[in-house]
Amino acid sequence: MRRSLPIALAASLLAGGAAVHLAPSASAATPCAPAWTASTVYLKNDNASHQGKNYTANWWSQNENPATSSGPWQVWTDKGACGDGPPPSNPPSTPPSDPPVDPPTDPPTDPPTDPGDGRLPAHFLTGYWQNFDNPAREIKLRDVPGTYDLIAVAFADATGTPGAVSFGIDAGLSASVGGYTNADFKADVATLHARGKKVILSVGGEKGTVSVNDPTAATNFANSVYALMQEYGFDGVDIDLENGLNPTYMAQALRTIRNRAGAGTIITMAPQTIDMQNPQSSYFKLALDIKDILTVVFTQYYNSGAMLGCDQNAAYGQGSVNFIVALTCIQLEAGLRPDQVAVGLPATTSAAGGGYVAPAVVNQALDCLARGINCGSFRPPRTYPGIRGAMTWSINWDVTAGNGFANTVRPHLNTLP
Question: Whose CB among 9, 76, 111, 415 lies 3.0–4.6 Å from 303's, allowing a Cys bridge?
Answer without folding.
Answer: 9
